[in-house]
Amino acid sequence: MERSKLLILAVFVLAGCVGTQPVNVDANRGLTIVDFSANPSEVQSGELVLFDVEIENIGGTAARNVQIDFFGIEEQWRDSGGNLIDSTLTQTFGNMQPPILERGVPGDNRLAQIDIMTPAIPQGVSPTLSVEARASYDYNTSGFIDIPAVSEDEFRRKRITGQQSPFPITVLNSAGPIQMSMQQRFAPIRVDNTIDNEFQVWPLRVELTNVGDGFPITEEDDVRIRGAGGRIFGTIEILGPGAEFEDCLGETDGTFINLDSTDLALRLRETGSVPMACTIRIDKDIWNDRPEDSVKIIFNLFYRYYVSASANVRVIGR
Fold this sequence. Notes:
Blueprint: H1 2-19, E1 31-39, E2 42-44, E3 48-57, E4 63-71, E5 89-96, E6 109-117, E7 128-151, H2 152-160, E8 170-173, E9 178-182, E10 189-191, E11 199-210, E12 215-217, E13 230-231, E14 233-239, E15 243-248, E16 256-258, E17 267-268, E18 273-283, E19 292-316
Parallel strand pairs: 2-19, 7-10
Antiparallel strand pairs: 1-3, 3-6, 4-5, 4-7, 7-8, 7-19, 9-11, 11-18, 12-19, 13-17, 14-16, 14-19, 15-18
């Protein structure tokens, strides 16, 4: 009997340990470098150093085509046989899944190691050498922007009767290093049926911002973007009564935009944000008896991104 009680207690203890494991989640990050270290951090010239890096997905979507590159070693450091390393050392990891917060499941993590020999340093000097680990990956940010819309008659009625509300814009983003926002001054969309024309035209300005601790990048074969930051791919869709695009990144009609083929490439530079100015139109006939509603902008964005860290080694010449 006592033995069975101990077994039950052990099960509860194990269950408690599993259920309370920490889950790292960050709304502004995707893949992160948890640790990058050199062991030992001080060696004599000609000795081996073990570089160890750990990465983890703490964002909201899967990191795909994950790759770690080690920079600062090509044509300088040597392999374990003493041969000069003639290329960047790279390790690939495929896809890494994000954390599942509601189940207490942390995001995938991966480890990478290289064991390399220091450059030949002459006696009498002891420089500190830096090696960079860069983790690059393909990521996805999905976004939802809900913009209130109101007829001109309803807008005036609310103002006269003192019921005027602030008409707030709702913005939702999945966790990741690129986020979108919209200023409140673009709401509400006012549909004026007192003017005799077929469509109501309204400007919208969406900001895409790099909020992570790394940088967006673009494959080298995209000549339009080379050296100008990271290309954003994916789709933008507009939903709402009578709403469609008037002019957005060169697209002049419809409710769906494929960013892979727009006339204007959407790109985000290494820091800061990029504005996306669009104009939409709304069919007024649908608003004849409609006082209030909303227009929704749905984003599904894809991009490549990298984060980096450095480890230093002091090399004593001999």
